[in-house]
Amino acid sequence: MLPEDWKKRSVAEVCRSVSVGVVIKPSQYYVSASEGIKAFRSANVKEGQVNNSDWVYFSHKGHNENKKSELKTGDVLVVRTGYPGTACVVTPQYAGCNAIDVVIARPDIQKIIPTYLCLFTNSEYGKSQVANLQGGMAQKHLNVGAYQQVEIPLPPLPEQKKIAAILSTWDRAIDGTEKLLANSQQQKKALMQQLLTGKKRLPGFTGEWKSSTLAACCKPQQWATISSKDLTFSGFPVYGANGFIGYFSEYNHENDTVAVTCRGSTCGTVSLIKGPSYITGNSMCLDQVKKDCSHIYLYYYLNHRGLKDIISGSAQPQIVGKAIQKVSVQLPTLPEQKAIASALTTADEEITALESDLSRLRQEKKALMQQLLTGKRRVTVD
């Protein structure tokens, strides 16, 4: 049940127009950035924001020939293909741009504010309607006529504005956390480049590093693969080529182990698997690590090095024992290995904490949207 002062309205009823960007051979209008006008594609439409990268540009002639898809401030752009229903609002800096194969909804601001239309379209309720209205078989897409049928529980304008303001607080928090996360990930990447090559030494460490091989550091080996029918719902976790796949009554690794996926699309992925666990034959386990080596250092070293150069096979990529045994490894002393591993572990913990914060904020926003955009939870309008 909607609140008394709310009305259910279709997108067609609350928009001055709903159209689509250039669909027929848009590439014929492409020119360089210095010569043209930005044209939005699906790649530029993120949930609630513009992705200001990967632009294409229309010539001025092409833009003038397609004036009907010239954008205005407040237009709501909706992805048609790929992730149908993803929406963002055109901000003043993008007014005058053109658009390619996206829905362009121009809200009637006497009925609905652009941010509210965007929020609703991106909500679970909005996306479920889009999913039900999509056309196409293999490649789903959203037609203009279908989007016009989407029904919106519509509060009065002052309440729309208040709801949009509340949810924008979450958007700012999410955006800030995303930037912190990206920064932390970049800092870790730089730290790995410095510490794992010896370009930067941690305080108290000097001396030359020695060159070695994985065969000299550990025993790379594969274990028996468990049949899916032997997996259970409890016991010890089992890890295959794509990570966790179930449980088994026994384990083959009591302690944390470095494992390298050696088959399939994830071939070459290096993981640090918590013990006790069972690691199947789809991964090469770095067992029996020598006393002068840290398994955590090897994990970070191999992640930084990458293993694409030892992958063989085309139809079915694989890494064989002889190839991985020959992989060269640069080794500082064990105390320095442990110090490097500790610094990078701390960086990973910071990233994990930010990822957790980001997930929590997104879930909180999602729950709040579900309540606010359906009238289940009301806001006080000043």
Task: Characterise this structure.
InterPro entries: Restrct_endonuc_typeI_TRD, Restrct_endonuc_typeI_TRD_sf, Type-I_RS_S_subunit. 35% of the residues lie in helices and 21% in strands. The chain is α+β, with helices and mostly antiparallel strands. The chain has 3 domains: 8-154, DNA methylase specificity domains (Adenine-n6-DNA-methyltransferase TaqI, Chain A, domain 2, Alpha-Beta Complex); 156-201 and 333-382, Orthogonal Bundle (Helix Hairpins), CATH 1.10.287; 210-331, DNA methylase specificity domains (Adenine-n6-DNA-methyltransferase TaqI, Chain A, domain 2). α6 packs antiparallel against α10 (334-372). The longest helix is centred in the middle third of the chain and has 39 residues, at 157-195.
The N- to C-terminal Cα distance equals 24 Å
Q: Judging from the principal axes of the Cα atoms, what is the shape?
A: elongated
Helix count, per DSSP? 10
Total count of strands? 21
The H-level CATH homologous superfamily of the largest domain, spelled out, is DNA methylase specificity domains
Low-confidence stretches: none
Helix content: 25-40%
The CATH class name of the largest domain reads Alpha Beta
- CATH topology title of the largest domain: Adenine-n6-DNA-methyltransferase TaqI, Chain A, domain 2
Proportion of β residues? 15-25%
Structural class call reads: alpha+beta
Give the spatial strand order of the biggest sheet: 2-11-8-9
Mean pLDDT: 94
**Gross CATH architecture of the largest domain:** Alpha-Beta Complex
Tell me which oligomeric state these chains represent. single chain
* Total separate domains: 3
